[in-house]
Design a protein that fits this description.
140 residues, alpha/beta, D-Maltodextrin-Binding Protein, domain 2, five-stranded mixed beta sheet, 5 helices, globular
């Protein structure tokens, strides 16, 4: 039994630990020039379908995107499978729809620039157009 376990461990490829601590994110919005700051909880609630009193429409990156994984870990605090399960339940009961998904951070910037009230997330360090507002940023 010990030999079998040792053999299986040798066959398992070594995977480096993924560290999210050094990766920062910015949540940006087209606020029409208004200065708005959101808390982590407000951003989480917004991307999970709650209303904040602002007329924001969230957009997200697709599953399996590294930046989305960072956002889920740092802001939402749930795994992708838990988030997908939540949205499946919400869609099935007809209560809410998940955020619109766009392919990459550039598409998110373009969409938000063209749609007032839209909000999305991008990696820290991405150049943000002057017409957009950073409403939340994670610690880097």
């Amino acid at each position: 039994m010990k030999k079998l376990l040792m053999y299986l461990l040798m066959l398992t490829p070594a995977t480096p630990a993924i560290s999210f601590a050094d990766d920062g994110l910015m949540v940006i919005a087209n606020t029409g020039g208004k200065e708005i700051t959101l808390t982590r909880e407000q951003v989480r609630n917004l991307f999970m379908g709650a209303s904040l009193g602002y007329d924001f429409n969230p957009v997200a990156l697709p599953p399996r995107n590294h930046v989305r994984s960072l956002f889920n870990a740092q802001v939402i605090g749930l795994t992708e499978s838990r988030i997908q399960s939540y949205w499946s339940q919400m869609k099935f009961t007809g209560r809410m729809k998940p955020p619109k998904e766009l392919n990459n951070p550039e598409a998110i910037l373009e969409f938000i620039s063209q749609n007032r009230g839209s909000v999305g997330y991008v990696p820290a360090g991405v150049e943000i157009p002057a017409s957009l507002t950073v409403v939340y940023a994670t610690d880097m």
